[in-house]
Amino acid sequence: MIDIKFLRENPDAVRENIKKKFQDKKLPLVDEVIKYDKKSRETQGEADELRASRNKLSKQIGVLMKEGKRDEAARVKEQVTANAARLADLEQKEKEYSKKVHDDMMLIPNIIDPSVPIGPDDSCNQEIEKFGEPKVPDYPIPYHTDIMESFDGIDLDAAGKVAGNGFYYLLGDIARLHSAVLAYARDFMINKGFTYCIPPYMIHGDVVNGVMSFEEMDAMMYKIEGEDLYLIGTSEHSMIGRYKDTLNNEEDLPFTMTSYSPCFRKEKGAHGIEERGVYRIHQFEKQEMVVICRPEEAWDWYNKLWSYTVELFRSMDIPVRTLECCSGDLADLKVKSCDVEAWSPRQKKYFEVGSCSNLGDAQARRLGIRIKRADGTKYFANTLNNTVVAPPRMLIAFLENNLNEDGSVSIPKVLQPYMGGTEKLIPKHKISK
C-alpha cells in the first residue's frame, strides 16, 4: 500500500506506475481514491464541527436552564437532537468512504524503483551477473528423480496414494542430504549475524492481507476450513507478521532474522516435464532471511541479501546467476526484486532457486509496523526478504552439478560435517536408461 498523501499529490505518477506494471484495469482506482478520499475528508470535517458544536450547545443548555429560560433551552435541545442525527449519518458515511479508499489502495501496486526494467512478464527479465563456470559434462545427466531413485531416495508413487500429486517421500541419503542443506543454510545465516527463528506455520487473514496482494493469496494460500487461518506459503509472511501493530525504537534496528519452515502452496495451473518430480510441489521446506530496517538502509541490505544466496550456492559448487525481475513480473507490493538461478547441466540452462525482494514500506504500512526516532517522530519501516535455500528444488541443482560419471554424488566440504563426514554418496543401483 502506498502513502495516500503521495497519491493525492502525485496521481499521474501513480497512474504511470500502474501502466508500467501492465495493469491498466486498475487505472480507474486512482480517480476513485481521489473522489472518495475527498468525500471522506469533507465528511470528517463536517462531523468534527458538529462534535464541537454539540459540546458548545450542551453547555448553553445548562446555562439557559439555570437562568430559567426553559423554552430557549428546549429549542437548543431540538438543535442538538437534529445535529446528533446528522452526525450519526456523517459517521456512517465516513466509515463507508474510508473503507472504499482503503480497499482501493490495497489494490494499487507499490511504486517500483526507476532501475526496474519495463516488461509485461518474466520473459523480459534481464540477466545481471553470472557466478561460477556453467559446465556440461561429457556424460549424460539423468532427470533428477532418476538420480534420487538410484539411491532409493524418493517415492512419488506412495506419496501420490497418500496425499496426491505434488507431494513426495524423501528417503535415506537423499532425505539426509535435504536436511543437511537446511542445517548448513541455518548456520551460514547465523554466522552472518542473523537471529535464527522457527515461526508459526499458520497465520490469520489480516496478516495475509498485510504481506501480499489478494491475487497472490488466492493463487498460493491454503485456507483452513472454518477458521481464520492460512497455511504459510513462505516463512517471511509469519516473520513480518510478528511485528504487526508495533512501535519499535529506531536504535534497535535493523531486525535481521533467518527462519526455517515448511511451506505449502497451491501451485495452480499445468506445468511441463521440467516442473514434475520435486520442482513444483505443494509442500517443501525453506530457509529464509528477513530484514526490517530504516528506509535509507534498505538498498544496502537488498544487495547483501541476494549476495548471501550466491555465496551459499557457490560454496556447494553450484554455478548461479542473478536475474533482474521486470515490472510485469513484480508482485504488487515489491519495489524491486531479483531471482537467483542455478545452473542445470542436464537442461543446459539456469532455473530459479530463490528470490530477493525490497518491499519498501508497503508491508509495514499495511501491518502497522512503525519506527520511533529519538526525537519522537514516527515512520513506517522498510521490509526485505530473500530465499537462503529451498530444498528439495535446490537438490535438483545440487545433484546435477555434483553427479559423477559412475553415478555417485560428491559432497562439498561445507556439507560433510552435516553428513557425518561422508564425502561421496554411492548409489544402490544403476539408473535405468
From TrEMBL:
Highest taxon of the lineage: Bacteria
Site description Important for serine binding, residues in chain: T387
Any one annotated GO CC term: cytoplasm
Annotated coiled-coil segments of the chain: 40-93
PROSITE patterns documented for this protein: AA_TRNA_LIGASE_II (PS50862)
Entry keywords, A to Z: Aminoacyl-tRNA synthetase, ATP-binding, Coiled coil, Cytoplasm, Ligase, Nucleotide-binding, Protein biosynthesis
A Gene Ontology molecular function term of the record: catalytic activity, acting on a protein
Sequence positions that bind ATP: R265, K266, E267, E352, V353, G354, S355
Ranges where the Aminoacyl-transfer RNA synthetases class-II family profile domain occurs: 176-412
Name of protein: Serine--tRNA ligase
